[in-house]
Amino acid sequence: MSTKKKSYIEQTSTMINNNYIQRFLFKDLNIRGQVIQLNDAWQSMLKDRHYPPVMTKLLGELTAFSVIMATGMKHTGKITLQIQGSGPITLLVVEVTHDLKIRGVAKTNETVAQQASLDELLGDAQILVTLENTQTNHHFQSYVERVGDTMIDAFENFLSQSEQLPSKLWLSATSDALGGVLIQKMPDTDERDSDGWNRIYHVSRTVTDKELTQLEPEALLHRLFHEEQVELFEAQPIQYECPQDKERVDAMLLSLGEEEARKLLKEQGEIVIYNEICNFHVRYGEAEINALFKQKESNNNTVHSKSKNT
Questions:
Q1: Is 35 exposed, middle or buried (0-12, 13-18, 19+ CB in 10 A)?
Q2: Which structural domains are found in the chain, ordered by start?
Q3: Distance CA 208, CA 248 (A)
Q4: Cα–Cα distance between 170 and 176 in angstroms, integer?
Q5: Which partner for 144 in 70, 111, 158, 201 could form a disulfide, CB atoms 3.0-4.6 Å apart?
Q6: 137-167 burial, b for 16+ CB within 10 Å, e for fewer?
Q7: Is the torsion defined by CA of 55, 57, 62, 66 positive or negative?
Q8: Could you tell me the CA-to-CA distances from 92 to 58, 73, 118, 129 in Å, in that order?
Q9: How buried is residue 279: exposed, middle or buried, by Cβ count under 10 Å (0-12/13-18/19+)?
């Protein structure tokens, strides 16, 4: 196997603690691909969630596909994939920024059967893709058609249709790690080698869940494709980022107004705001509410005073 900047790739993989996505290319066949692996970033996303294995698997598949799509972004912004429906898994949502910062959450309203089918788990849920361009402040939405029996079937179909390139995808997710491999056939692949795509596809099918989640990219690609010429490009690091932004929660309460906030406080004894996607609570007692609106009044007086002086 030939690699591009091999020593740099090895250093990068260690430096980012196996949270990366890397492109690769079968040079002689013109078949491209990507390999993704998340360890501690994925564990941070799942921390204190206590999802059953089947929910972890589905959220992992959605996360991997979201990252793959985000690597194709040519502007600043983020991509959000959301599945919301009538099944026992009521919500799956993943957000990935253009610089590959991830966060996500899954929700259920009842016990989830491990061996249930995708239709039984999600009901009539659709897979909604939202692409946000922060440079132009525009949003674009589309649906990933629910075809086949698995999420991977739907993702493969979406990639094949949207990019006009036959695509095959293998994903695996546990509570410890998430891994995947994507291969895509280019328009002139058959001209290079009429059997090339079939050969790469059939070899790729032998990959195991353990290999996807535990092998380094070079080791994984060598295990699968040691008889092919593969060029492995530089790793793109992936980070979990979900800050506990109390200022946004403060702003939300301030927008309610002091009268409504105090009414809630009197009714409930304490105002508790839960950020589901980042999994944290912000609690407001009487002292916190007093301080919040006192600060608002002080800020308003300061602004008013400056206005009078000018």
A1: buried
A2: 6-240 (3.55.30.10), 246-303 (3.90.1280.10)
A3: 43
A4: 17
A5: 158
A6: eeeeeeebebeeeebbebbbbbbeeeeebbb
A7: positive
A8: 8, 22, 13, 12
A9: middle
134-172 pLDDT, tens per residue? 888 899 999 999 999 999 999 999 999 999 999 999 999
Whole-angstrom distance, CA of residue 239 vs CA of residue 44: 10
What angle separates helix 53-70 from helix 151-162, to the nearest 10 degrees?
A: 10
Residue 64 buriedness (CB in 10 A; 0-12 / 13-18 / 19+): buried
> For residue range 203-220, what is the model confidence (pLDDT) as tens digits?
999 999 999 999 988 899
Model's pTM, two decimal places? 0.82
The values of phi and psi at residue 9, to 5°, are -60, -45
The token pair at 137 is: 């402040």
* CA–CA distances in Å: residue 118 to residues 22, 186, 200, 215: 29, 31, 28, 28
**Residue 86 in tokens:** 């009538």
3-class DSSP string for the chain: CCCCCHHHHHHHHHHCCCCEEEEEEECCCCEEEEEEEECHHHHHHHCCCCCCHHHHHHHHHHHHHHHHHHCCCCCCEEEEEEEECCCCEEEEEEEEECCCEEEEEEEECCCCCCCCCHHHHHCCCEEEEEEEECCCCEEEEEEECCCCCCHHHHHHHHHHHHCCCCEEEEEEECCCCEEEEEEEECCCHHHHCCCHHHHHHHHHCCCCHHHHHHCCHHHHHHHHHCCCCEEEEEEEECEECCCCCHHHHHHHHHHHCHHHHHHHHHHHCCEEEEECCCCEEEEECHHHHHHHHHHHHHHHHHHHHHHHHC
